[in-house]
Amino acid sequence: MTHKPSVPALLQRGSWPETARIAAVLRKETVGGALLLAATVIALVWANSPLADSYHALRNYEIGPAALHLDLSLGTWAADGLLAVFFFVVGLELKRKFVAGDLRDPRRAALPILAAVGGMAVPAVVYVAINLTGTSGTLAGWAIPTATDIAFALAVLAVINTHLPTALRTFLLTLAVVDDLLAVTIIAIFYTKNVQFIPLLLAIVPLALFAFAVQRRIRSWWLLLPLALITWGLVHASGVHATVAGVLLGFVVPVIRSRSHGGPEAGPGLAEHFEHRFRPLSAGIAVPVFAFFAAGVTIGGFSGLADALTDTVTLGIIAGLIVGKAVGISGTTYLLSRFTGATLDTNLRWLDVFGVSVLAGIGFTVSLLIGDLAFGAGTIHDAHVKIGVLIGTILAALLAAMILRTRNRAYRRIHETERVDDNADGIPYMYQ
Question: Which protein family is it in (predicted)?
């Protein structure tokens, strides 16, 4: 008699090493989220103050070698340069999850991948549906509401003080990382114009040398940093958004030490080392600085806000972030449960999944980046994109807070069971 393989429960608790690592990552991202919030508030206040001209002058100030066509504004340097660091960390994180993390099990990997796809497809459909009858060119922003900002989301969780279970936090983080990878893929395919193939092909050379060096476990910054910068510069010169270079560089870093260098049991590859070094730089500097230059939109009082709310671009973004994300992620998760026969972990309810899905509607960093690429900096639609992203993010945060707070007593009970027992080598009983 044959038995069908058991179907793992959805959102079940992962292994202790993965749980402990995720907890450490989330602590750093929460601090980064607080800095992101602060940078956004400063930018908005400055851009709507009597000193608004000085803010725009600072953002548009150009610096860099003109001979290399890198005389870019500070705002562009933040979007093309600093965000490449952010996407480098995304590449490292995603590769580590699928090579050495719990997601190397295809059954575990299916949920966050499919949920991320659903969480991007449905917001795009919502945006397109609202803009089908809009003014010419508004459909270019279809991908704006597809992104999830994990740092902002975790900052919201810290503010509302909810004891969200580890499984849900891990799901949110993994979902956002996959989301970011899909977003940079969309940028490379749909928001790249006039590709110069010679620089793009030349970028393969320093990228290959970087890959060879890290595979040989070379950590020397004086070698790796120039190779990374040359790769970035050539990708930028090709017309492909330079953040793509960050993801590619992250993907070539080894997660597990090769057998020729001591075997997997000898220790991790360089990915863990680089992630430890660059995640604080990404969360603490790169993303907040980008937010500072990207979020500073001059609203123009109530009349300006009213004008923005009559633009289908603004309405499409708000609806995509709030409705599209919630329906896309929770709906995909529910359909996966129905078709596979998997059930939720016994500690969780479908309301929890819906709450996290609403929380994923906090789209900020990548949404602003795509908006800039879709409509161009300084245009009226670009200003309305920023207003739409800000309103959608705030509303998603408020709705998620209300939903998740209703379950906070249950979350606190789960949290108590996840506390570390000092008498068991720091490992909770449930993981032993």
Answer: Belongs to the NhaA Na(+)/H(+) (TC 2.A.33) antiporter family.
What are the pLDDT digits (tens) for 271-281?
A: 888 988 898 89
Report which of 254, 272, 271 is spatially closest to residue 263, judged by C-alpha positions: 254
Give CA–CA dist 323/328, Å, rounded. Answer: 8
**Largest distance between two CA atoms of the chain:** 79
Which is more confident, 143 or 409?
143
Report pTM.
0.88
Residue 222 in tokens: 């004086």
The pLDDT value recorded for residue 275 is: 87
Distance separating alpha carbons of residues 179 and 150, to the nearest angstrom: 10
CA distance 388 to 281: 28
The tens digit of pLDDT for each residue in 248-292 reads 999 999 987 655 554 444 456 788 889 888 988 998 899 999 999
Q: Token digits for 378?
A: 């300084």
Instruction: Report the candidate in 420, 360, 417 with the shortest Cα–Cα distance to residue 392.
Output: 360
Residue 22 has pLDDT above 80, yes or no: no
* Contact call for residues 90 and 250 (beta carbons, < 8 A): yes
Q: Which of 345, 292, 248 is nearest to 58 (CA)?
A: 292
The label of the residue with tokens 């179907």 reads 7
List of domains in the chain: 16-192+241-412 (1.20.1530.10)
β-bridge mates for residue 31, sequence order: none
Q: Which of 326, 371, 388 is nearest to 140 (CA)?
A: 371
d(CA 106, CA 231): 32
Report the alpha-carbon distance of residue 329 to residue 207 in Å, rounded: 35
